[in-house]
């Protein structure tokens, strides 16, 4: 297949540099990124810790580096939105993160909601549906998107869940590597399946080494495992089931994947996520250079 030509902007997850937000922004600018994605769950970027003045200062600083925000990460971990006892607090926190994003110049917040159960009549499915309906309405009312990251379930199953929400405020952050590494789903087919919902993507690559239960990666309500990004990173680096690898060295068909994004007229960001490795800055620079080769 002839390599597709893309016009998408290239982003970097600031936290992938592991040097704090301010220095990470400088490094993102240095590697040639157009924009950044920033975790806004705890610490210095938690909405609860940011005064109106601080928000303006961050926005100004990011713009001074020639960057924009592609999205915020609003992933609250645990069991996503599967636990009814926690959902009220998580829904309100998610709304505050969406509001912060709008103040900083992005209308996209990415997240994990938990594995969508196969049984639509299950209590967990209903709990997730109710939470996502509320978040979808809130996002739509604010011209924003609460974007679920792909990986825990097949694209066809995720589409069926999204189709049932009624509005598209809850949408998709497409991560092709997660599909390759965990469910074994085809990212190219996934783009076409989810074409009406994709508002942001992660540029990541990986290989599948063996079968793994998605619950052992992403957790599940009533299952002993909870979503933990540090644990997932460790699994991606040293586990027996999958590996995260540099862009172009894994199971993602980049020609086919980027062509599919072109075919559905996706104009959003390709945001690099690097969760493993001892030299993230070098790895991210290689990823930026890899994507820029598709710009023709």
UniProtKB/TrEMBL annotation:
GO terms for molecular function: isomerase activity. SUPFAM superfamilies: Xylose isomerase-like. Keywords: Isomerase. It holds the Pfam family AP_endonuc_2. InterPro entries: IolE/XylAMocC-like, Xyl_isomerase-like_sf, Xyl_isomerase-like_TIM-brl. Signal peptide: none annotated. The keyword Isomerase applies. Residues 27-293 form the Xylose isomerase-like TIM barrel domain. PANTHER family: HYDROXYPYRUVATE ISOMERASE, INOSOSE DEHYDRATASE. This is Sugar phosphate isomerase/epimerase. It comes from Paenibacillus pinisoli. The lineage of its organism: Bacteria, Bacillati, Bacillota, Bacilli, Bacillales.
């Amino acid at each position: 297949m002839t390599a597709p030509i893309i016009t998408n902007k290239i982003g970097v997850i600031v936290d992938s540099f592991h040097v704090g937000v301010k220095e990470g922004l400088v490094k993102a600018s240095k590697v040639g990124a157009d924009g950044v994605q920033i975790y806004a769950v705890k610490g210095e970027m938690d909405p609860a810790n940011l005064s109106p003045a601080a928000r303006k200062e961050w926005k100004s600083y990011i713009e001074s580096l020639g960057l924009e925000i592609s999205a915020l990460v609003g992933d609250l971990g645990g069991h996503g939105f599967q636990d009814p006892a926690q959902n009220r607090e998580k829904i309100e926190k998610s709304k505050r993160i969406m509001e912060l994003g709008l103040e900083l110049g992005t209308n996209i917040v990415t997240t994990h909601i938990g594995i969508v159960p196969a049984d639509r009549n299950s209590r967990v499915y209903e709990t997730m549906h109710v939470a996502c309906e509320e978040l979808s309405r809130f996002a739509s009312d604010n011209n924003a998107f609460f974007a679920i990251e792909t990986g825990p379930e097949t694209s066809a199953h995720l589409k069926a869940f999204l189709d049932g929400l009624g509005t598209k405020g809850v949408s998709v952050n497409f991560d092709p590597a997660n599909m390759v590494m965990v469910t074994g789903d085809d990212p190219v087919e996934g783009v076409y399946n989810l074409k009406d919902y994709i508002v942001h993507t992660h540029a990541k690559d990986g290989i599948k080494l063996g079968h793994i239960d998605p619950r052992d990666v992403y957790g599940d309500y009533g299952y002993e495992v909870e979503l933990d990004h540090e644990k997932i990173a460790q699994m991606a680096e040293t586990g027996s089931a999958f590996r995260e690898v540099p862009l172009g060295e894994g199971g993602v068909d980049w020609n086919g994947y980027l062509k599919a994004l072109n075919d559905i007229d996706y104009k959003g960001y390709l945001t690099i996520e690097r969760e493993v490795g001892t030299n993230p800055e070098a790895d991210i620079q290689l990823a930026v250079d890899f994507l820029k080769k598709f710009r023709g």
